[in-house]
Amino acid sequence: MSVTQVSNVLGVQNDVKAIAQRAHEVGAYMVDGAQSVPHVPVNVRDLDCDLMAFSAHKLGGPMGIGVLWGKSEVLDAMPFLTGGEMIDSVTETDAVWAPVPPRSSRPARRTPRAPSRPRPPSTTWRARTWPSSRRASASLPPTADRLNDLPYVDVIGPKDGSRHVSAVAFNVRGVHPHDVASILDMSNVCIRAGHHCAQPLLNYLEVENRATCRASVAFYNDKADIDRLVEGLDKVWSIFGGASTRRRRSMDRSTPASLYNAQFMDHVAHPDYKYQMDDPTYTHYGVNPSCGDELTFSVKIGDDGRIEEAAYQGHGCAVSQASADMMSDLMVDKTPQEAIELCKLFGRMVRGEKRRTTPSSRPSTRPRPSRT
Q: Which candidate in 190, 197, 291, 317 is catalytic?
């Protein structure tokens, strides 16, 4: 079995030593140390794990390389990567494996990146852990505490900042995490947003949209960074929930969040085409696995061969919701071929390609339906 020492979602440290006792009753036991090794002292003998893996980039090293530590008897029993240097000899029916570590190495190594990797650790990783841990620990409790003080923010997991290692997961009420991340990015604040490759956990916690925001701190962060995060979240709330309509409509291109203008937000707050269509001619379900947006788009074709009704359902960020509402408006009165061209145009816009003008990109002249 495998378990994370520190959750990359919640930033909470698991009692892997206690888990090891149960795990050894059924077999080998591996620890994912990617989130723990850069921030807390790790002693593999004390943890009594059979294997531990962690990545170099989490330690400030290069992308694409990492470390797999293991007990020799476990590594000897598990040749799992095939290639040139992992064997001593090969016949038509058998192979003699090389000793560890060559038998557990990739056939093609990323040698140009290896010199920048930290010195291989002993059984206790000390070199860069404690100094960075002390500084990160000084920043992290205020992060969780500051987020808990914001009335529109829900911290996911323990509210006590001392229980977090490096990361805090949170959501802004009623705002999709991707919108939070986009607006913070405009203020030069970088967070992660999405399901963090942990959909079962978010399903178990019944998190809205099955996604969270995640703020991570390390030795290079200080109080000023936390202040900028809080200021950015205030801006998010002013756009989506805390500002008057007058303020939202007064936003122009000079504001950092120019994408989230009045017309855009009107489609988010008061969609005209978000409803269950009766007897659609065509229905298409789409999901973005990297972010969790799920939308079902439906159209009804009239006797004249044109789209007489378009609607959508589902959940996702404001960009996907507003885009679906605006696209539905554009689809009405179009032929299916014109609708396909509109989809192609939208795809080019998303990819940042040069826009081609087309008559079919004009919105419908029909009155917009009065739906809420």
A: 197
Please give the C-alpha separations between residue 366 and each of 131, 175, 308, 333, in angstroms, as whole numbers: 65, 31, 10, 8
Q: Are 334 and 343 in contact (CB under 8 A)?
A: no
Q: What is the DSSP letter of 95?
A: E
Q: Examine the residue annotation and report whether 197 is marked as an active-site residue of this protein.
A: yes
- Residue 113: burial class (beta carbons within 10 Å; 0-12, 13-18, 19+): middle
- pLDDT over threshold 80, residue 122: no
Helix ranges (DSSP H) in 4-118: 16-23, 44-47, 72-76
- Report the 10 Å Cβ neighbour count for 76: 14
| Cα 307 from Cα 26, distance rounded (Å) | 60
Q: Which two tokens stand for residue 117?
A: 């990797």
- Measured CA to CA, the distance from residue 354 to residue 341 in angstroms comes to 15
Alpha helices per DSSP H over the chain: 16-23, 44-47, 72-76, 129-149, 177-186, 199-205, 223-240, 245-249, 262-269, 318-331, 336-350
pLDDT, one tens digit per residue, over 7-59 is 988 988 988 888 888 888 887 778 888 889 888 888 988 888 888 999 888 88
Beta bridge partners of 215: 168
In this structure, the chain runs to a length of 372
**Three-state DSSP class for 130?**
helix
Q: Give me the sheet containing 153-156, strands edge to edge.
A: 153-156, 167-172, 212-216, 192-194
Task: Please give the structure tokens belonging to residue 202.
Answer: 């978010």
CA 175-177-178 angle, to 5 degrees, is 110
